[in-house]
Specification:
379 residues, alpha+beta, Butyryl-Coa Dehydrogenase, subunit A, domain 1, Butyryl-CoA Dehydrogenase, subunit A, domain 2, Butyryl-CoA Dehydrogenase, subunit A, domain 3, four-stranded antiparallel β-sheet, three-stranded mixed β-sheet, 9 strands
């Protein structure tokens, strides 16, 4: 594995860093406080190519590799994880899934605008089907030339701001996971209602809603893949999505670490800078080592994906470890700041709250361990 980034990759990294600092940082505390979706910033991210980074240029994408994508995700996440999760869902789940498994007509109609300037949503979770994704209660009844969609989805990122939704629903319950389909649903379709926005602990700027479908007609042409392919589609797409969330967790950890390091160099206690106290030196050393280890796991998963190799285990390991150290590093960052770390002005308390969700969405910590164990015991 080559640890030297190309000029293009470094340029992407720097562009993301500059955007995060100039566009996302100024009002990030206010957006967190008022749960304000960063609509203007997301629009600019689309214009800069951050919303369809890995999509083929013929579909309005950037044609970049996964390494470039995770570099950008880390930089955006250092400043605003609410913006980066919108970016992650659109890139890793919606655009990647459509490009990999969609028909040419679906790519022309949905992927091209999504990669250029749109926002997509991936609708899998339900009130009674979180980690157990096979227990879909949302139904897609086959009516010949269309499906009749009924049910509720919850915890949906980009729930209100998206214009294109990929909805996972059960068509034939007798076949269990082999009777599930993935359907493309447009915003504004009759019977499709966006529910309340969730009042969350972290990533408060992100657009998390429940979605209700009541007798929504979805054309057969909007089914992704063959009949019954929906569960395989969802699981395959989530394998790649975990790389995006690992990058988000890494960014949150790195952002908190950089703030703690800067503060420790400036703050004095007992007559000397915090960095001169061995207790603080040890904390910073452990934080930095954990971050580097998480980054190596992430880059390994991204490289395997780019090389077309099996990356399932690597992606789960990266997501598992990066999300765990995000919790640990942000907590220590607050501790190093002391009382200042507990107030919003110094950012680290927000990063600590944001970190927790990385252990939950796109497969909980426990699900990652199950995936890793399954891959280890496969042979």
């Amino acid at each position: 594995m080559d640890f030297n980034l190309s000029e293009e990759q470094r340029a992407v990294q720097q562009a993301a860093r500059d955007f995060a600092t100039t566009e996302l940082l100024p009002e990030v505390i206010e957006r967190d406080t008022h749960q304000k979706f960063p609509a203007e910033q997301i629009k600019k991210m689309g214009e800069l190519g951050f919303m369809g980074m890995m999509v083929d240029p013929k579909y309005n994408g950037g044609g970049m590799d996964t390494i470039s994508y995770v570099l950008a995700m880390e930089e955006i996440s250092k400043i605003d994880a609410s913006a980066s999760v919108c970016m992650s869902v659109n890139n890793s789940l919606v655009c990647w899934g459509l490009e990999k498994f969609g028909t040419e007509a679906q790519k022309q109609k949905y992927l091209k605008p999504l990669a250029a300037h749109g926002i997509g949503a991936f609708c899998l979770s339900e009130p009674e089907a979180g980690s157990d994704a096979t227990s879909q209660r949302t139904t897609a009844e086959d009516k010949g030339d269309y499906y009749l969609l009924n049910g509720t989805k919850n915890w949906i990122t980009n729930g209100n701001s998206a214009n294109t939704y990929i909805v996972i629903a059960q068509t034939d319950a007798a076949k269990r996971h082999k009777g599930i389909n993935a359907l493309i649903v447009e915003k504004g379709t009759p019977g499709f209602v966006v529910g309340k926005k969730e009042d969350k602990m972290g990533i408060r700027g992100s657009d998390t809603h429940s979605l209700m479908f009541q007798d929504v007609k979805v054309p057969k042409a909007n089914r992704i893949g063959e009949d019954g392919f929906g569960f395989t589609f969802a699981m395959t797409t989530l394998n790649g999505g975990r790389i995006g969330i690992a990058a988000q967790a890494l960014g949150i950890a790195t952002g908190a670490f950089e703030l703690a390091l800067k503060y420790a160099k400036e703050r004095k206690a007992f007559g000397k800078h915090l960095t001169e106290h061995q207790a603080i030196q040890f904390k910073l050393s452990e934080m930095a080592t954990k971050i580097e280890a998480a980054r190596l796991l992430l880059w390994q998963a991204a490289t395997l994906k780019d090389e077309g190799k099996d990356f399932i285990r690597a992606a789960s390991m990266a997501k598992l470890y990066a999300s765990e150290i995000a919790q640990e590093v942000t907590t220590e960052a607050v501790q190093i700041h002391g009382g200042y770390g507990y107030v919003k002005e110094f950012h680290v308390e927000r990063l600590m709250r944001d970190a927790k969700i990385t252990q939950i969405y796109e497969g909980t910590t426990e699900i990652q361990k199950m995936v890793i164990a399954r891959e280890l015991l496969r042979n």
